[in-house]
Protein backbone atom coordinates (compact mmCIF):
# COMPACT_ATOMS: atom_id res chain seq x y z
CA UNK A 1 0.00 0.00 0.00
CA UNK A 2 2.86 2.35 0.81
CA UNK A 3 4.39 1.79 -2.64
CA UNK A 4 0.98 2.38 -4.21
CA UNK A 5 0.35 5.51 -2.12
CA UNK A 6 3.68 6.99 -3.14
CA UNK A 7 2.57 6.87 -6.76
CA UNK A 8 -0.27 9.28 -6.06
CA UNK A 9 0.19 10.92 -2.65
CA UNK A 10 3.25 13.08 -2.08
CA UNK A 11 5.40 11.15 0.36
CA UNK A 12 2.73 8.47 0.67
CA UNK A 13 1.21 10.13 3.77
CA UNK A 14 -1.31 12.89 4.35
CA UNK A 15 0.60 14.93 6.94
CA UNK A 16 4.22 15.60 7.88
CA UNK A 17 3.25 14.48 11.36
CA UNK A 18 2.84 10.95 9.97
CA UNK A 19 6.24 10.80 8.30
CA UNK A 20 8.19 8.24 10.30
CA UNK A 21 10.99 5.88 9.39
CA UNK A 22 9.63 2.65 7.92
CA UNK A 23 6.23 1.83 6.52
CA UNK A 24 3.21 3.77 7.79
CA UNK A 25 0.25 2.02 9.35
CA UNK A 26 -2.66 1.89 6.87
CA UNK A 27 -5.88 1.77 8.85
CA UNK A 28 -8.83 -0.18 7.54
CA UNK A 29 -11.37 0.56 10.26
CA UNK A 30 -11.66 1.83 13.81
CA UNK A 31 -14.24 1.10 16.52
CA UNK A 32 -14.20 1.98 20.21
CA UNK A 33 -10.68 1.68 21.63
CA UNK A 34 -9.48 -0.41 18.66
CA UNK A 35 -8.28 0.07 15.15
CA UNK A 36 -7.47 -2.55 12.51
CA UNK A 37 -4.82 -2.25 9.83
CA UNK A 38 -5.16 -3.29 6.20
CA UNK A 39 -3.83 -6.78 7.05
CA UNK A 40 -6.49 -7.25 9.73
CA UNK A 41 -4.18 -6.76 12.73
CA UNK A 42 -5.91 -5.15 15.74
CA UNK A 43 -4.38 -2.40 17.88
CA UNK A 44 -5.50 -0.79 21.12
CA UNK A 45 -5.34 2.81 20.04
CA UNK A 46 -4.04 5.66 22.20
CA UNK A 47 -3.58 8.06 19.29
CA UNK A 48 -7.32 8.52 18.69
CA UNK A 49 -6.66 10.49 15.53
CA UNK A 50 -4.25 12.75 17.53
CA UNK A 51 -6.88 13.26 20.24
CA UNK A 52 -10.37 13.76 18.79
CA UNK A 53 -11.99 10.35 19.40
CA UNK A 54 -12.81 11.06 23.04
CA UNK A 55 -15.75 8.64 23.07
CA UNK A 56 -13.66 6.11 21.17
CA UNK A 57 -13.73 5.58 17.42
CA UNK A 58 -17.06 5.88 15.60
CA UNK A 59 -19.35 5.71 18.63
CA UNK A 60 -22.98 4.98 17.75
CA UNK A 61 -24.12 8.32 19.12
CA UNK A 62 -21.88 10.11 16.61
CA UNK A 63 -22.53 7.77 13.68
CA UNK A 64 -26.30 8.07 14.18
CA UNK A 65 -26.26 11.86 14.52
CA UNK A 66 -24.14 12.31 11.42
CA UNK A 67 -26.18 9.89 9.29
CA UNK A 68 -29.48 11.43 10.42
CA UNK A 69 -28.36 14.95 9.59
CA UNK A 70 -27.04 13.89 6.19
CA UNK A 71 -30.38 12.28 5.35
CA UNK A 72 -32.31 15.24 6.67
CA UNK A 73 -30.53 17.42 4.18
CA UNK A 74 -27.57 19.72 4.26
CA UNK A 75 -26.59 23.10 2.98
CA UNK A 76 -23.57 25.23 3.80
CA UNK A 77 -22.89 28.87 4.56
CA UNK A 78 -26.33 29.20 6.11
CA UNK A 79 -27.60 29.57 9.65
CA UNK A 80 -29.29 26.65 11.38
CA UNK A 81 -30.60 25.53 14.73
CA UNK A 82 -27.84 22.98 15.39
CA UNK A 83 -25.23 25.74 15.35
CA UNK A 84 -27.11 27.66 18.05
CA UNK A 85 -27.55 24.55 20.15
CA UNK A 86 -23.85 23.68 19.98
CA UNK A 87 -22.92 27.25 20.91
CA UNK A 88 -25.31 27.16 23.87
CA UNK A 89 -23.77 23.90 25.04
CA UNK A 90 -20.24 25.29 24.79
CA UNK A 91 -21.22 28.42 26.68
CA UNK A 92 -22.62 26.30 29.49
CA UNK A 93 -19.46 24.15 29.68
CA UNK A 94 -16.49 26.49 29.05
CA UNK A 95 -15.68 29.37 31.44
CA UNK A 96 -14.46 31.92 28.83
CA UNK A 97 -17.20 31.15 26.30
CA UNK A 98 -19.63 34.07 26.27
CA UNK A 99 -19.82 34.20 22.48
CA UNK A 100 -18.67 31.61 19.97
CA UNK A 101 -17.81 31.29 16.27
CA UNK A 102 -17.13 28.06 14.41
CA UNK A 103 -14.55 26.87 11.89
CA UNK A 104 -13.62 23.47 10.53
CA UNK A 105 -10.14 22.73 11.92
CA UNK A 106 -7.95 23.87 14.78
CA UNK A 107 -5.45 25.77 12.64
CA UNK A 108 -8.23 28.01 11.31
CA UNK A 109 -9.69 28.82 14.70
CA UNK A 110 -6.22 29.55 16.13
CA UNK A 111 -5.56 31.84 13.20
CA UNK A 112 -8.92 33.54 13.75
CA UNK A 113 -8.08 34.07 17.43
CA UNK A 114 -4.87 35.94 16.60
CA UNK A 115 -6.59 38.01 13.94
CA UNK A 116 -9.31 38.87 16.45
CA UNK A 117 -6.76 39.83 19.10
CA UNK A 118 -4.94 42.10 16.66
CA UNK A 119 -8.18 43.69 15.47
CA UNK A 120 -9.48 44.16 18.99
CA UNK A 121 -6.35 45.70 20.49
CA UNK A 122 -5.04 47.53 17.41
CA UNK A 123 -1.62 46.00 18.13
CA UNK A 124 0.36 43.61 15.94
CA UNK A 125 2.73 41.53 18.04
CA UNK A 126 1.91 38.18 19.56
CA UNK A 127 3.92 36.37 22.20
CA UNK A 128 4.24 32.68 21.44
CA UNK A 129 6.10 30.07 23.45
CA UNK A 130 8.81 27.63 22.44
CA UNK A 131 7.44 24.24 21.47
CA UNK A 132 3.76 25.29 21.51
CA UNK A 133 1.87 24.36 18.36
CA UNK A 134 -1.04 26.39 17.04
CA UNK A 135 -1.54 24.81 13.63
CA UNK A 136 0.45 24.83 10.48
CA UNK A 137 -0.64 28.10 8.86
CA UNK A 138 2.01 30.66 8.02
CA UNK A 139 3.08 33.33 8.50
CA UNK A 140 2.45 33.55 12.21
CA UNK A 141 1.03 30.22 13.22
CA UNK A 142 3.71 27.96 11.85
CA UNK A 143 5.09 25.49 14.33
CA UNK A 144 7.83 27.71 15.69
CA UNK A 145 10.53 25.99 17.65
CA UNK A 146 14.20 26.47 18.07
CA UNK A 147 15.54 23.87 15.62
CA UNK A 148 14.80 20.37 16.88
CA UNK A 149 17.44 18.90 14.65
CA UNK A 150 19.27 19.76 11.47
CA UNK A 151 16.91 17.58 9.43
CA UNK A 152 13.79 19.59 10.35
CA UNK A 153 11.72 21.30 7.65
CA UNK A 154 13.71 24.00 5.86
CA UNK A 155 10.88 26.52 6.15
CA UNK A 156 10.76 26.42 9.93
CA UNK A 157 11.49 29.91 11.33
CA UNK A 158 14.31 29.98 13.83
CA UNK A 159 14.85 32.55 16.55
CA UNK A 160 18.08 34.46 16.00
CA UNK A 161 20.44 34.23 18.98
CA UNK A 162 20.66 37.63 20.64
CA UNK A 163 17.46 38.84 19.01
CA UNK A 164 15.53 38.49 22.23
CA UNK A 165 13.32 35.90 20.61
CA UNK A 166 12.20 38.08 17.68
CA UNK A 167 11.83 35.95 14.58
CA UNK A 168 13.13 36.91 11.18
CA UNK A 169 11.20 37.34 7.96
CA UNK A 170 7.70 35.95 7.69
CA UNK A 171 7.04 35.82 11.40
CA UNK A 172 8.29 39.29 12.33
CA UNK A 173 5.26 40.02 14.51
CA UNK A 174 5.71 36.83 16.45
CA UNK A 175 7.78 37.13 19.59
CA UNK A 176 9.10 33.78 20.77
CA UNK A 177 9.91 33.21 24.40
CA UNK A 178 10.34 30.46 26.98
CA UNK A 179 7.22 29.07 28.65
CA UNK A 180 6.62 28.36 32.33
CA UNK A 181 9.32 30.96 33.03
CA UNK A 182 7.99 34.18 34.52
CA UNK A 183 11.25 36.12 34.19
CA UNK A 184 11.36 35.37 30.45
CA UNK A 185 7.79 36.60 29.97
CA UNK A 186 8.24 39.72 32.11
CA UNK A 187 11.36 40.63 30.18
CA UNK A 188 9.69 40.02 26.79
CA UNK A 189 6.64 42.10 27.70
CA UNK A 190 8.87 44.96 28.91
CA UNK A 191 10.82 44.98 25.64
CA UNK A 192 7.64 45.18 23.52
CA UNK A 193 5.49 47.26 25.88
CA UNK A 194 2.36 48.67 24.25
CA UNK A 195 2.84 46.60 21.07
CA UNK A 196 1.58 43.19 22.14
CA UNK A 197 -1.93 42.13 21.16
CA UNK A 198 -1.93 38.67 22.70
CA UNK A 199 -0.11 35.97 24.57
CA UNK A 200 -1.03 32.58 23.11
CA UNK A 201 -0.26 29.24 24.74
CA UNK A 202 -1.28 25.64 25.10
CA UNK A 203 -2.44 25.85 28.74
CA UNK A 204 -1.25 22.28 29.24
CA UNK A 205 1.60 21.83 26.78
CA UNK A 206 0.69 18.71 24.80
CA UNK A 207 2.70 19.08 21.60
CA UNK A 208 6.04 19.01 23.41
CA UNK A 209 5.38 16.73 26.37
CA UNK A 210 2.33 16.69 28.67
CA UNK A 211 3.32 19.60 30.90
CA UNK A 212 1.04 21.38 33.35
CA UNK A 213 2.49 24.82 34.14
CA UNK A 214 3.16 26.01 37.68
CA UNK A 215 0.04 27.53 39.35
CA UNK A 216 1.90 30.70 40.20
CA UNK A 217 3.03 31.05 36.60
CA UNK A 218 -0.44 30.93 35.07
CA UNK A 219 -1.94 33.38 37.54
CA UNK A 220 1.01 35.74 36.97
CA UNK A 221 0.47 35.52 33.19
CA UNK A 222 -3.19 36.40 33.69
CA UNK A 223 -2.21 39.41 35.86
CA UNK A 224 0.43 40.65 33.40
CA UNK A 225 -2.04 40.45 30.51
CA UNK A 226 -4.63 42.42 32.51
CA UNK A 227 -2.11 45.06 33.54
CA UNK A 228 -0.73 45.48 30.02
CA UNK A 229 -3.97 45.37 28.01
CA UNK A 230 -2.87 42.10 26.39
CA UNK A 231 -5.39 39.40 25.50
CA UNK A 232 -4.69 35.92 26.85
CA UNK A 233 -5.45 33.14 24.37
CA UNK A 234 -5.58 29.52 25.43
CA UNK A 235 -5.21 27.13 22.52
CA UNK A 236 -7.33 24.29 23.88
CA UNK A 237 -7.47 22.34 20.63
CA UNK A 238 -6.11 19.31 22.53
CA UNK A 239 -7.09 20.09 26.14
CA UNK A 240 -10.62 21.32 25.40
CA UNK A 241 -13.38 18.93 26.52
CA UNK A 242 -10.59 16.48 27.41
CA UNK A 243 -8.78 17.37 30.65
CA UNK A 244 -12.11 18.56 32.11
CA UNK A 245 -15.56 19.30 30.61
CA UNK A 246 -14.52 22.98 30.48
CA UNK A 247 -10.97 22.22 29.33
CA UNK A 248 -7.69 23.31 30.93
CA UNK A 249 -9.18 26.67 31.92
CA UNK A 250 -11.63 24.87 34.18
CA UNK A 251 -9.05 22.42 35.49
CA UNK A 252 -6.39 25.06 36.18
CA UNK A 253 -8.79 27.80 37.30
CA UNK A 254 -7.55 30.56 34.98
CA UNK A 255 -9.95 32.05 32.44
CA UNK A 256 -8.44 33.36 29.19
CA UNK A 257 -10.00 36.09 27.04
CA UNK A 258 -10.23 33.73 24.07
CA UNK A 259 -10.21 29.94 23.91
CA UNK A 260 -9.58 27.88 20.78
CA UNK A 261 -11.22 24.46 20.47
CA UNK A 262 -11.21 21.60 17.97
CA UNK A 263 -10.43 17.87 18.03
CA UNK A 264 -12.52 16.32 20.86
CA UNK A 265 -15.43 18.76 20.57
CA UNK A 266 -17.10 16.69 17.88
CA UNK A 267 -15.58 13.32 18.74
CA UNK A 268 -13.90 12.98 15.34
CA UNK A 269 -15.88 15.22 13.00
CA UNK A 270 -14.23 18.39 11.71
CA UNK A 271 -15.37 21.28 13.87
CA UNK A 272 -13.36 23.95 15.61
CA UNK A 273 -14.46 26.94 17.64
CA UNK A 274 -13.29 30.27 18.83
CA UNK A 275 -14.93 31.17 22.13
CA UNK A 276 -14.33 34.28 24.17
CA UNK A 277 -15.47 37.10 26.34
CA UNK A 278 -18.31 39.05 24.79
CA UNK A 279 -16.43 42.36 24.74
CA UNK A 280 -13.69 40.75 22.65
CA UNK A 281 -15.93 38.64 20.42
CA UNK A 282 -18.02 41.73 19.69
CA UNK A 283 -15.14 42.87 17.45
CA UNK A 284 -16.13 40.03 15.14
CA UNK A 285 -19.86 40.68 15.64
CA UNK A 286 -19.42 44.34 14.65
CA UNK A 287 -17.63 43.33 11.44
CA UNK A 288 -14.37 45.08 12.41
CA UNK A 289 -12.56 41.76 12.08
CA UNK A 290 -13.57 39.36 9.34
CA UNK A 291 -14.29 35.71 9.96
CA UNK A 292 -15.35 33.51 7.08
CA UNK A 293 -15.37 29.96 5.70
CA UNK A 294 -17.70 28.11 3.34
CA UNK A 295 -17.89 25.08 5.58
CA UNK A 296 -18.08 26.87 8.95
CA UNK A 297 -20.80 25.27 11.10
CA UNK A 298 -21.21 22.47 8.58
CA UNK A 299 -24.54 20.88 9.59
CA UNK A 300 -23.25 17.30 9.54
CA UNK A 301 -20.20 18.12 11.64
CA UNK A 302 -22.31 20.26 13.98
CA UNK A 303 -24.80 17.44 14.45
CA UNK A 304 -21.79 15.36 15.52
CA UNK A 305 -20.65 18.08 17.92
CA UNK A 306 -24.13 18.41 19.41
CA UNK A 307 -24.36 14.67 20.06
CA UNK A 308 -20.84 14.31 21.47
CA UNK A 309 -20.98 17.41 23.69
CA UNK A 310 -24.34 16.31 25.06
CA UNK A 311 -22.82 13.01 26.17
CA UNK A 312 -19.68 14.65 27.60
CA UNK A 313 -21.74 17.19 29.52
CA UNK A 314 -24.50 14.94 30.80
CA UNK A 315 -22.22 12.03 31.72
CA UNK A 316 -19.40 14.24 32.98
CA UNK A 317 -19.39 12.70 36.48
CA UNK A 318 -18.71 9.31 34.99
CA UNK A 319 -16.62 9.97 31.87
CA UNK A 320 -13.95 12.33 33.18
CA UNK A 321 -13.06 10.59 36.47
CA UNK A 322 -13.05 7.19 34.74
CA UNK A 323 -10.85 8.38 31.87
CA UNK A 324 -8.45 9.89 34.39
CA UNK A 325 -8.46 6.78 36.59
CA UNK A 326 -7.68 4.45 33.68
CA UNK A 327 -5.02 6.83 32.37
CA UNK A 328 -3.41 6.90 35.80
CA UNK A 329 -3.45 3.10 35.95
CA UNK A 330 -1.37 3.15 32.77
CA UNK A 331 0.92 5.91 34.03
CA UNK A 332 1.61 4.16 37.34
CA UNK A 333 1.90 0.77 35.63
CA UNK A 334 4.40 2.00 33.03
CA UNK A 335 6.54 3.64 35.70
CA UNK A 336 6.52 0.44 37.79
CA UNK A 337 7.43 -1.73 34.77
CA UNK A 338 10.26 0.60 33.77
CA UNK A 339 11.70 0.61 37.25
CA UNK A 340 11.48 -3.20 37.42
CA UNK A 341 13.34 -3.45 34.09
CA UNK A 342 15.86 -0.78 35.07
CA UNK A 343 14.86 1.57 32.20
CA UNK A 344 15.00 5.26 33.12
CA UNK A 345 11.48 6.54 32.48
CA UNK A 346 9.35 9.52 33.44
CA UNK A 347 5.57 9.42 33.00
CA UNK A 348 3.86 12.77 33.29
CA UNK A 349 0.38 14.17 32.55
CA UNK A 350 -3.21 14.36 33.72
CA UNK A 351 -4.36 10.80 32.99
CA UNK A 352 -6.74 11.92 30.20
CA UNK A 353 -3.51 12.42 28.30
CA UNK A 354 0.07 11.79 29.34
CA UNK A 355 3.62 11.52 28.06
CA UNK A 356 6.21 8.80 28.50
CA UNK A 357 9.82 10.01 28.43
CA UNK A 358 12.99 7.97 28.36
CA UNK A 359 14.80 10.04 30.93
CA UNK A 360 15.97 9.81 34.51
CA UNK A 361 14.80 13.40 35.19
CA UNK A 362 12.24 13.85 37.97
CA UNK A 363 10.09 16.05 35.72
CA UNK A 364 10.04 17.98 32.43
CA UNK A 365 8.93 21.60 32.72
CA UNK A 366 9.22 23.10 29.25
CA UNK A 367 10.06 22.53 25.60
CA UNK A 368 13.84 22.70 26.00
CA UNK A 369 13.79 19.97 28.62
CA UNK A 370 11.43 17.93 26.42
CA UNK A 371 13.68 18.35 23.36
CA UNK A 372 16.68 17.14 25.35
CA UNK A 373 15.08 13.76 26.13
CA UNK A 374 15.79 10.67 24.03
CA UNK A 375 13.10 10.88 21.36
CA UNK A 376 14.89 8.61 18.87
CA UNK A 377 14.67 5.68 21.28
CA UNK A 378 11.06 6.68 22.04
CA UNK A 379 10.29 6.30 18.32
CA UNK A 380 11.86 2.81 18.46
CA UNK A 381 9.62 1.97 21.41
CA UNK A 382 6.67 3.11 19.29
CA UNK A 383 7.63 0.49 16.67
CA UNK A 384 8.01 -2.25 19.29
CA UNK A 385 4.62 -1.35 20.79
CA UNK A 386 2.97 -1.58 17.38
CA UNK A 387 4.31 -5.13 17.09
CA UNK A 388 2.60 -5.81 20.43
CA UNK A 389 -0.70 -4.36 19.18
CA UNK A 390 -0.48 -0.97 20.91
CA UNK A 391 -0.58 2.39 19.10
CA UNK A 392 0.75 5.50 20.85
CA UNK A 393 1.78 8.84 19.35
CA UNK A 394 5.40 8.17 18.30
CA UNK A 395 6.87 10.91 20.48
CA UNK A 396 5.43 9.13 23.54
CA UNK A 397 2.06 10.87 23.94
CA UNK A 398 -0.97 8.82 25.01
CA UNK A 399 -4.65 9.80 24.74
CA UNK A 400 -7.39 8.03 26.69
CA UNK A 401 -11.01 7.76 25.62
CA UNK A 402 -14.26 6.85 27.34
CA UNK A 403 -14.16 3.60 25.33
CA UNK A 404 -10.94 2.27 26.92
CA UNK A 405 -11.78 -0.44 29.45
CA UNK A 406 -9.88 -1.85 32.39
CA UNK A 407 -9.28 -4.96 30.26
CA UNK A 408 -7.63 -2.71 27.65
CA UNK A 409 -5.42 -1.26 30.38
CA UNK A 410 -4.40 -4.75 31.59
CA UNK A 411 -3.59 -5.85 28.03
CA UNK A 412 -1.64 -2.64 27.40
CA UNK A 413 0.45 -3.04 30.55
CA UNK A 414 1.39 -6.60 29.54
CA UNK A 415 2.27 -5.47 26.01
CA UNK A 416 4.27 -2.52 27.32
CA UNK A 417 6.36 -4.82 29.49
CA UNK A 418 7.19 -6.98 26.45
CA UNK A 419 8.05 -4.00 24.27
CA UNK A 420 10.19 -2.31 26.91
CA UNK A 421 12.09 -5.53 27.58
CA UNK A 422 13.05 -5.65 23.89
CA UNK A 423 14.21 -2.04 23.85
CA UNK A 424 17.54 -2.48 25.59
N1 LIG B 1 -3.53 23.81 18.23
C1 LIG B 1 -3.09 22.75 18.89
C2 LIG B 1 -2.75 22.88 20.34
C3 LIG B 1 -2.98 21.51 18.23
O1 LIG B 1 -2.51 20.45 18.90
C4 LIG B 1 -3.33 21.42 16.87
C5 LIG B 1 -3.23 20.11 16.09
N2 LIG B 1 -2.42 19.15 16.61
C6 LIG B 1 -3.77 22.58 16.22
C7 LIG B 1 -3.88 23.75 16.92
C8 LIG B 1 -4.17 22.54 14.77
O2 LIG B 1 -5.36 21.86 14.63
P1 LIG B 1 -5.71 21.17 13.22
O3 LIG B 1 -4.68 20.11 12.99
O4 LIG B 1 -7.10 20.64 13.43
O5 LIG B 1 -5.66 22.25 12.19
Automatic annotation (TrEMBL):
<comment type="similarity">
    <text>Belongs to the class-III pyridoxal-phosphate-dependent aminotransferase family.</text>
</comment>
<keyword id="KW-0663">Pyridoxal phosphate</keyword>
<dbReference type="InterPro" id="IPR015421">
    <property type="entry name" value="PyrdxlP-dep_Trfase_major"/>
</dbReference>
<dbReference type="InterPro" id="IPR005814">
    <property type="entry name" value="Aminotrans_3"/>
</dbReference>
<keyword id="KW-0032">Aminotransferase</keyword>
<dbReference type="InterPro" id="IPR015422">
    <property type="entry name" value="PyrdxlP-dep_Trfase_small"/>
</dbReference>
<dbReference type="GO" id="GO:0008483">
    <property type="term" value="F:transaminase activity"/>
</dbReference>
<protein>
    <submittedName>
        <fullName>Aminotransferase class III-fold pyridoxal phosphate-dependent enzyme</fullName>
    </submittedName>
</protein>
<dbReference type="GO" id="GO:0030170">
    <property type="term" value="F:pyridoxal phosphate binding"/>
</dbReference>
<dbReference type="InterPro" id="IPR015424">
    <property type="entry name" value="PyrdxlP-dep_Trfase"/>
</dbReference>
<dbReference type="Pfam" id="PF00202">
    <property type="entry name" value="Aminotran_3"/>
</dbReference>
<keyword id="KW-0808">Transferase</keyword>
Amino acid sequence: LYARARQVIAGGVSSDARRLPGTPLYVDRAQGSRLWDADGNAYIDYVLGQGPAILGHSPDVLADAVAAQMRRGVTYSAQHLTEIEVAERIRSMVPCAELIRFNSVGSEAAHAALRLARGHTGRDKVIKFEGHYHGWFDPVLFSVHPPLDAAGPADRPVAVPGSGGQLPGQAADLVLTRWNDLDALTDTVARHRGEIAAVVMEPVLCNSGAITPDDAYLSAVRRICDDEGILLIFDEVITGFRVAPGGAQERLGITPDIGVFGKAMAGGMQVSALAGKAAVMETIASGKVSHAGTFNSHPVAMAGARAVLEVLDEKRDDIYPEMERRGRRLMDGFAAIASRLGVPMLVQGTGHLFQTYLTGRPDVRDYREFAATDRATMARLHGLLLEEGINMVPRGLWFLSAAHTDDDIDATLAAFENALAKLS
